[in-house]
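Below is a filled-in request sheet from our internal design queue. Each sheet records the structural input a requester submitted and the sequence that came back. We keep these sheets so that new team members can see what a complete request looks like end to end.

REQUESTER: design group, bay 2
PRIORITY: normal
MODE: inverse folding
CHAIN LENGTH: 258
BACKBONE (tokenized):
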């Protein structure tokens, strides 16, 4: 698109970093991020449902074998980190890993493929990687944060949770204000770091693909885009894994009685 003369490189990059939005002010919705995240989440549930329904005890097919490997990998990770009894943690970890991985995987689609098709259909802006939208990543981390608070209060009680915030790391009533500041910052840093880490890494990866497509002629883009895509596969998988592991770790900490 950039090489056709329709847009300057600056306009091309800005165009690909703009979401399709509806509403105004605080109630502005990034429609493309919402649509693609819901579609990919539905795709993940459909794949696991289909595999689970058609699972056989004999020699599994390729898809069933892949899904079983993912399930066993997530189950082993949960058992290594979470030592309590909670029926939610393993399914949540599997959902987080699969959903984030599929959203990240959209970054490997050529940057002009879907947006240019959308432009032909009259859609001016379209970003296809939901995890490059900070609203999506922070919404997911906010959901994890709500679970952290829920299990902290459920396991320790309101009094126990209050003591954890007010009497650590200095176990004396005179240090309660200092403890509240320290523990409050630590508590709030969990969802913030969880969401911003995923957003920052995926946004940087998307930006590199856009820079390659916007600044190089179409016939030479593969020289840089292919090696970066191969390396980016590692980033995509690693970020999904980190988000899952930190979710398990935070819920494990919330479920521990001090």
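RETURNED SEQUENCE:
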């Amino acid at each position: 698109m950039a090489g056709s003369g329709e847009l300057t490189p600056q306009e091309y990059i800005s165009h690909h970093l703009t979401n399709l939005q509806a509403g105004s002010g605080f109630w502005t919705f990034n429609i493309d991020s919402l649509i693609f995240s819901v579609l990919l989440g539905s795709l993940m549930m459909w794949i696991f449902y289909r595999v689970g329904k058609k699972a056989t005890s004999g020699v599994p097919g390729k898809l069933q074998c892949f899904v079983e490997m993912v399930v066993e990998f997530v189950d082993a990770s949960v058992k290594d980190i979470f030592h309590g009894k909670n029926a939610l943690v393993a399914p949540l970890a599997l959902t987080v890993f699969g959903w984030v991985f599929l959203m990240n995987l959209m970054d490997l689609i050529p940057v002009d493929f879907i947006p240019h098709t959308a432009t032909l259909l009259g859609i001016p802006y379209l970003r296809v990687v939901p995890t490059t939208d900070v609203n999506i990543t922070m919404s997911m981390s906010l959901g994890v944060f709500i679970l952290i608070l829920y299990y902290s209060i459920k396991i320790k009680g309101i009094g126990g949770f209050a003591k954890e915030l007010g009497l650590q790391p200095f176990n004396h009533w005179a240090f309660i204000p200092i403890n509240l500041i320290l523990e409050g910052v630590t508590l709030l840093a969990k969802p913030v770091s969880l969401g911003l880490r995923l957003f920052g890494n995926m946004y940087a990866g998307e930006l590199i693909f856009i820079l390659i497509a916007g600044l190089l002629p179409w016939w030479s883009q593969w020289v840089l885009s292919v090696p970066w895509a191969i390396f980016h596969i590692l980033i995509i998988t690693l970020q999904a894994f980190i988000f899952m592991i930190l979710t398990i770790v935070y819920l494990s900490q919330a479920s521990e009685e001090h």
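SHEET NOTES:
- The first strand starts at residue 21 and ends at 22.
- The helical segments are 9-16, 31-53, 62-81, 89-105, 113-120, 134-166, 176-215, 222-254.
FILED BY: M.R.
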